[in-house]
Design a protein that fits this description.
It is a single chain. The chain is of the alpha+beta class and 393 residues long. The chain contains 12 helices and 8 strands. It has 3 domains: 79 residues, Acyl-CoA dehydrogenase/oxidase, N-terminal domain (Butyryl-Coa Dehydrogenase, subunit A, domain 1, Orthogonal Bundle); 113 residues, Butyryl-CoA Dehydrogenase, subunit A, domain 2; 142 residues, Up-down Bundle (Butyryl-CoA Dehydrogenase, subunit A, domain 3). The strands form 2 sheets. The protein has a 4-stranded mixed sheet. β2 and β3 form a beta hairpin. α10 runs antiparallel to α12. 40% of the residues are buried. The structure holds flavin-adenine dinucleotide (FAD). Flavin-adenine dinucleotide binds next to β1 and α12.
Length: 393
């Protein structure tokens, strides 16, 4: 078994590493710039550097990069806590390349490839999350347009975004998966209202508002903004969800906090006046255990990439990687908080917070990781039914 990267891939990784270190700094999050604004600016640099859509086919403004190169880029980005490109580049664009009309490709792909437009995703509704196909937002045909009424929730980044891609019900009589259509809408279309949801881990301007409720009241959208066939939007969404779940970033997101914790724990005085945190047996065990889990998660992620590169379709393998990676992050955050003691719970704005409050923020944000992009329970259901052929519960 040879898990080594080739010399070419290693040199690619070092180029990526250099680019990220030069272009993305923690400083970008200081002052009044929100995380979303910083990400948007950085996406412009990614586009200029040819990284943003490097795995798209060249015909659509991409660089024709391999799956392994894309994976290396995503891994390095997550290890540096840097964005790797927004939903336009990693979801809407790839979905349009597969399901879009020629006009849609011409209209949207260039602006996505140039990092000019920010997209958000309108799937979830107050009554439809895991059971997404039960969604109730209606789109009713009116000549060459559709009129949309309903509500979406947890729309990440909607306040900052320019466009939204949403799922709507276009046939209320059909079985639930067969009456759904997929649309693209400009967020300044009359009838759309966005209401931010306050979050526990918001800590000043740097976080901005992550979540939003998005309301649609008699919103008129041209039929030409539909992606794929009418009432077949579910199958387009399935493509988008595959792009969302298959990432290495969940494992890699644990690496930077872990490394900072390891370094801090080894510093004299990190536990009382003379001792280090790492002198404490249970803390040492926790650090060693986390290192093992990071290695396991890495290879679960690499397996997904290997399957994609071998023209195999990862399915339960993506679920394993998603579930293990997001649960690993929660365990890492929890172990860190325990090791740092009561001071570990201080927020980034508190000058007494160890590691500038990073673990407090990490602990709170990590809670959502086993919910976003399909909960851990849903991933386990997929592994049980599609991987182990167990009956549906
Ligand atoms: C950080 C974050 C970002 C998000 N961003 C977006 C976004 O941009 N756009 C968007 O549309 N949505 C977004 N979401 C919403 C996300 O997709 C949903 O929260 C998720 O699908 C779960 O749906 P729900 O919250 O309605 O929970 P529910 O589906 O109501 O689930 C509640 C609980 O029941 C469990 N459960 C449900 N069904 C089953 C089952 N069949 N078997 C076993 N257990 C089950 C779940 O695992 C969970 O523990 C985001 C969520 C998070 C946390």
């Amino acid at each position: 078994m040879d898990f080594e990267f080739t010399d070419e891939q290693k040199s690619f990784r070092s180029d990526v590493h250099k680019f990220i270190n030069e272009q993305w700094t923690r400083g970008a999050l200081e002052g009044d710039t929100t995380r979303w604004q910083a990400a948007r600016e950085y996406e412009g640099s990614l586009a200029d550097g040819g990284w943003l859509t490097m795995s798209w086919p060249e015909a659509y403004g991409g660089g024709g990069a391999t799956y392994w190169e894309q994976m290396i880029f995503n891994e390095e980005s997550a290890m540096a806590n840097a964005p790797s490109g927004g939903q336009g580049a990693d979801r809407v664009g790839p979905v349009l390349i597969i399901h879009g009309t020629q006009e849609q490709k011409e209209e949207h792909l260039p602006s996505i490839a140039q990092g000019k437009v920010m997209w958000c995703q309108g799937y979830s509704e107050p009554g439809s999350g895991s059971d997404l196909a039960s969604l109730q937002t209606r789109a009713i045909r009116d000549g060459d347009d559709f009129i949309i009424n309903g509500q979406k929730i947890w729309t990440s980044g909607a306040v900052e975004a320019d466009w939204i891609h949403i799922l709507t019900r276009t046939d209320g009589e059909a079985p639930k998966h067969r009456g759904i259509s997929y649309f693209m809408l400009k967020l300044d279309t009359p009838g759309i209202t966005i209401r931010p949801i306050a979050q526990l881990h918001d800590d000043g301007a740097a976080d901005g508002h992550g979540f939003n409720e998005t309301f649609f009241e008699d919103v008129r959208v041209p039929a030409s903004n539909m992606i794929g066939e009418e009432n077949r939007g579910w199958y387009v969404a399935a493509t988008a969800l595959d792009f969302e779940r298959s990432g290495i970033h969940r494992m890699a997101g644990a690496v930077s906090p872990y490394n900072r914790l390891l370094e801090f724990s080894s510093q004299p005085g990190s536990r009382g006046s003379t001792q280090t945190i790492a002198d404490h047996g249970p803390s040492r065990d926790a650090l060693a255990q986390t290192r093992i889990e990071i290695e396991v998660a890495k290879y679960l992620g690499y397996r997904v990439t290997w399957m994609q590169a071998s023209n195999l379709v990862p399915n339960q393998e993506s679920s394993m990687s998603k579930m293990f990676g997001s649960e690993l992050q929660q365990r890492t955050a929890k172990r860190g908080i325990n090791m740092l003691g009561l001071y570990g719970g201080l927020r980034p704005s508190d000058p007494r917070a160890p590691l500038a409050g990073e673990f407090c923020r990490y602990y709170m944000t990590s809670v959502s990781l086993t919910i976003a992009a399909g909960t851990s329970e849903i991933q386990r259901n997929i592994i049980a039914t599609r991987g182990l052929n167990l009956p549906r519960g």
